[in-house]
């Protein structure tokens, strides 16, 4: 409510009391008693006519029943059933909606008077309030039977209530559950709040012009605790916003109980940020490249700079205004998500910078944003975790045959994979315990140039934290793309085997990037993110140039380290994504030479893999990704 609110004017049915449940049950009973089972009326129809005054309510029901039976019904039936219905209402004690007593008590403490403005006759309204024990909470009660006042949706009853209180209507807040009531409150010049506890849902109330929309009067809650990420209860007015809150908690590594009852997304973000700020700081700032499939963003969260400031930018071919205008699942545009992040910055007392980098599907991009926010927050607030997993080479062996792949793993740090096809044979051992130094043997025809490939593989392995013993032999056909793609596929499969073992035994992050700090955002020419989701995707995103320019400059027709073909290195990324069942996003952030770019890609892949393998006890037994798609 505005700070200068002078009074609150309440509708009664469906706002103060749950009379809708009674109306549905009583109406069905009366219809059954009069007509038997030949006609019926569903709850949705009764809910739609519930805001009408009782005589109009029953006339609408009679017309509906006549449409069903195809024959006229006596008009007196509506009058008779209305009388029986009103008599039952006057003897009922309706449940007071949760939260109402606390709100009324708070308003009384603040000396803000309240009035009831009902679409029922005055005497009946007073009787029902007395039955519920609410009569003394209201200074003024207005019914719909004053011949000088038009009924809702006309503004007369609300204007009369404000006049009785001696107040200008513009200083009064109206609380309504129906479209009729919202129209009356707005027409009276009052700030009108819609609450979806009666006849209309939040979408309809918002569309009707409510200044604010609530789902209930329950208290908002934000409770996060580092622990099992599967313990979660998230309720907002929008399922997609709830999903974004889930992304933050999942990546942060917390259980969460978050309940938000209105459409003020900024305040919702502030509540979550305030809850997070209670955790002790591990570091002042953190950054991340967040992604899912074809959407990506770069995020910086800084608790030591410009507290409460949120910046949203876009790079390259993404136009920010266009991106924000796009619908996103249940949201008509991105404004509520932008507002939520602005509120999150305020609650955190931090600066949050978000750069939208790719946006083929807006919901993927927003998921990338919120993932990056969650990962950045985990680096700032998360408990200190071990850097390396405890090895479990306890002699338990697991050997499986998967088509042309033979997988042999021992514990969580050593895996051997062999693959034999009509074209080649690959043998690989990956060892996170680094028992032996890396060794790479590539037996190919003289026309295949491999100089520099071993160095790139070693850069990946060193940054990922493992050694590898790799042997590739071309058996029949000598083809460079077979070498690069097959090697990558086998490396990816071995990593996947180890990751699944670690996920079940110790828990892992399951995703990572090479962007961790503000310095990374400033200095890195290549940003890389990887997320093991159970499906394959990879993409290169150009900064400051078109994709066509990037393709010609880096991906196609370029010699790398003198002899390597850029097309073959692209095939390596393809194969790695397939073997690891992962999404890989590569940001070409600054134009540098093909040699420097591809070294940055392989180094960045290694760092992203290292982070994906980090132990995370909060996800023990849980696949990475909110949807847990990896089996």
Summarize the structure.
By secondary structure, the protein is of the alpha/beta class. The protein contains 20 helices and 25 strands. The strands form six sheets. The protein has a six-stranded parallel sheet with strand order 3-2-1-4-5-6, sandwiched between helices.
Please report the distance between the alpha carbons of the first and last residues. Answer: 48 Å
Biggest sheet details? 6 strands, parallel
What is the tally of helical segments?
20
Strand arrangement, major sheet? 3-2-1-4-5-6
Form type: elongated
Average pLDDT for all residues: 91
Strand content: 15-25%
Oligomer: single chain
Judged by helices, strands and strand pairing, the structural class is alpha/beta
Poorly predicted spans: none
| Structural Rg | 32 Å
Give your account of this protein's structure:
The chain is built from 20 helices and 25 strands. The longest helix is centred in the last third of the chain and has 26 residues, at 480-505. Helix 10 runs parallel beside helix 14 (362-381). A hairpin with a 2-residue loop joins strand 10 (285-292) and strand 11 (295-302). 41% of the residues lie in helices and 22% in strands. It has 631 residues and is an alpha/beta fold. The chain is elongated, with a radius of gyration of 32 Å.
């Amino acid at each position: 409510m505005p700070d200068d609110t002078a009074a609150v004017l309440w509708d009664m049915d469906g706002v103060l009391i749950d009379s809708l449940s009674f109306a549905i049950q009583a109406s069905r009973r009366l219809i059954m008693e009069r007509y038997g089972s030949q006609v019926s009326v569903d709850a949705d129809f009764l809910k739609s006519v519930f805001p009408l005054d009782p005589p109009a309510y029953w006339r609408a029901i009679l017309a509906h029943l006549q449409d069903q039976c195809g024959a006229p019904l006596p008009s007196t039936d509506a009058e008779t059933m209305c009388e029986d219905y009103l008599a039952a209402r006057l003897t009922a004690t309706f449940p007071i909606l949760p939260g109402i007593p606390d709100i009324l008590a708070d308003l009384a403490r603040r000396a803000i008077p309240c009035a009831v403005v009902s679409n029922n006759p005055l005497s009946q309204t007073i009787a029902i309030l007395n039955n519920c024990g609410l009569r003394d909470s209201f200074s003024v009660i207005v019914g719909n039977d004053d011949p000088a006042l038009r009924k809702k949706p006309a503004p007369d009853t609300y204007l009369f209530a404000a006049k009785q209180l001696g107040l200008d209507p513009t200083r009064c807040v109206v609380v309504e559950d129906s479209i009729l009531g919202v129209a009356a409150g707005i027409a009276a010049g009052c700030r009108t709040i819609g609450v979806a506890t009666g006849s209309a849902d939040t979408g309809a109330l918002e569309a009707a012009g409510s200044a604010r929309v609530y789902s209930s009067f329950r208290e908002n809650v934000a409770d996060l605790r580092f622990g099992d990420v599967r313990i979660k209860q998230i309720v907002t007015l929008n399922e997609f916003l709830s999903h974004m809150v889930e992304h933050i908690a999942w990546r942060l590594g917390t259980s969460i109980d978050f309940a938000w009852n209105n459409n003020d997304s900024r305040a919702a973000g502030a509540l979550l940020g305030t809850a997070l700020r209670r955790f002790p700081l591990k570091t002042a700032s953190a950054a991340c490249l967040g992604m899912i499939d074809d959407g990506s963003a770069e995020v910086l969260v800084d608790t030591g700079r410009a507290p409460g400031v949120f910046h949203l930018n876009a790079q390259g071919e993404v136009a920010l205004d266009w991106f924000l205008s796009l619908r996103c699942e249940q949201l008509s545009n991105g404004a509520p998500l932008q507002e939520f992040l602005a509120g999150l910055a305020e609650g955190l007392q931090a600066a949050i910078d978000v750069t939208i980098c790719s946006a083929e599907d807006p919901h993927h991009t927003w998921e990338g944003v919120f993932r990056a926010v969650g990962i950045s927050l985990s680096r700032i607030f998360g408990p200190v975790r071990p850097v390396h997993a405890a090895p479990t080479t306890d002699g338990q062996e697991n050997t499986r045959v998967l088509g042309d792949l033979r997988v042999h793993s021992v514990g969580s740090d050593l895996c051997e994979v062999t693959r034999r096809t009509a074209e080649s044979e690959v043998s690989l051992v990956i060892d996170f315990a680094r028992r032996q130094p890396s060794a790479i043997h590539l037996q190919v025809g003289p026309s295949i140039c491999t100089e520099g490939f071993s160095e790139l593989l070693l850069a990946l392995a060193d940054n990922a934290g493992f050694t590898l013993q790799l042997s590739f032999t071309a058996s029949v056909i000598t083809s460079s793309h077979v070498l690069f793609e097959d090697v990558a596929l086998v490396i990816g499969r071995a990593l996947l085997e180890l990751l699944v073992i670690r996920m079940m035994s110790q828990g892992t992050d399951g995703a990572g990037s090479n962007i961790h700090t503000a310095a990374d955002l400033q200095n890195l020419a290549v940003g890389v993110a990887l997320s093991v989701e159970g499906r394959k995707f990879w993409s290169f995103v150009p900064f400051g140039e078109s994709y066509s320019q990037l393709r010609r400059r880096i991906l196609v027709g370029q010699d790398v380290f003198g002899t390597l073909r850029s097309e073959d290195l692209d095939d390596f990324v393809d194969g790695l994504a397939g073997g690891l069942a992962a999404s890989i996003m590569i940001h070409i952030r600054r134009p540098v030479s093909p040699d420097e770019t591809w070294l940055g890609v392989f180094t960045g892949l290694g760092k992203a893999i290292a982070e994906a393998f980090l132990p995370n006890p909060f996800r023990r037994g849980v696949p990475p990704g909110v949807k847990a798609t990896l089996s």
